[in-house]
Write a structure and sequence with these properties.
About 30% of the residues lie in helices and about 25% in strands. The protein is of the alpha/beta class. It has a 5-stranded mixed sheet. Strands 1-9-10-4 form a 4-stranded mixed sheet. α7 links the parallel β6 and β7.
């Protein structure tokens, strides 16, 4: 019985380490489901397009008028691989060094969760980066998103610090968004996304029934209007974003091709058990109309 225990120590450890791995992973806070359209897929790649526009809806005069729809910009999602692992020597098992052993799957789970949060937040951290582009060849937040139909360029970028006035102005700008033929889109911003440094300011702006820092103490138009998301992984302390979560669910995508998995094998000659985690996914945006970002100097 003892011989079998030692010869197959890696397999005996595996159920417990797997349990630690997934329990740790499941307990780590994540903002991804609050922002992304989370999906799974079995396809080698996924393709999505931005809003394709048509002209005004005419009155019926006996014959249907047929328009030429303009296809939106195409975004293809491919799925790179991510993998990491750890090794456990048999002597750790023989010497009952379980405190050391158990920390390793926990650390691996934390690393996997951190990688996913970093990749998701990079969409916002690079929202103004001209080297980080979407289907229209532009950064997520710019002043010159092009039109497929030859219409005017459109903007979803500002440079104003977060305040009562800038939040109201940004809401109005988003509600005035139009498609590439100039038609209204009916964007309704409902989510405020900020870094940790702006958490107090943002909370005061949307949770105070009265205007803050004013002698008149007038009613606050922002009170109760927005969901606040504070993301530790946003790297700029001044930049902030206003979102329409309804459109974000359409165009801000996360595809899990292979959900996070945990596996092991034991090497007969080296007395080392190897454990690894593996996942495939990609995130991105197919259209920009769900967001207005401020790059604050």
């Amino acid at each position: 019985m003892v011989t079998a225990r030692r010869e197959h120590f890696g397999y005996l450890l595996e159920p417990g380490l797997r349990k630690i791995f997934y329990e740790t992973y499941d307990q780590i806070p994540t903002m991804l489901p609050d922002l992304f359209n989370m999906q799974t897929t079995s396809n080698p790649y996924e393709t999505d397009v931005s809003i394709g526009t048509m002209g005004a809806f005419p009155k019926f005069e006996g014959t249907v008028e047929y328009d030429r729809p303009y296809q939106g910009y195409k975004k293809t999602y491919e799925f790179p691989e991510f993998a990491h692992g750890f090794r456990i020597e048999r002597k750790l098992f023989d010497d009952d060094r379980y405190n050391e052993i158990n920390k390793q799957p926990a650390g691996l789970a934390i690393g996997a969760a951190r990688r996913r949060e970093e990749d998701g937040s990079n969409i916002f951290n690079n929202a103004f980066n001209t080297n980080f582009t979407g289907g229209d060849g532009k950064a997520l937040c710019v002043t010159d998103h092009p039109s497929q139909s030859g219409g005017a360029d459109r903007s979803n970028k500002g440079t104003t610090a977060l305040s009562h006035a800038s939040l109201q102005d940004t809401k109005n700008l988003m509600r005035a968004f139009v498609d590439d033929r100039g038609g209204k889109i009916s964007v309704v911003p409902d989510t405020l996304l900020v870094p940790v440094a702006l958490e107090e300011t943002a909370w005061e702006l949307i949770e105070s029934a009265k205007k803050i820092d004013t002698a008149e103490n007038n009613p606050n138009i922002h009170y109760g209007k927005y969901k606040l998301i504070v993301w530790d992984y946003l790297t700029d302390d001044s930049n902030w974003f206003l979102l329409d979560s309804r459109y974000a669910r359409l165009f801000l995508n996360w595809f899990d091709r292979i959900p996070l998995e945990f596996a092991m094998e034991e090497d007969f000659d080296t007395f080392v058990a190897k454990y690894r985690a593996y996942m495939r996914y990609e995130s991105g945006w197919s259209d920009w109309i769900w967001i207005y970002g401020h790059e604050v100097a």
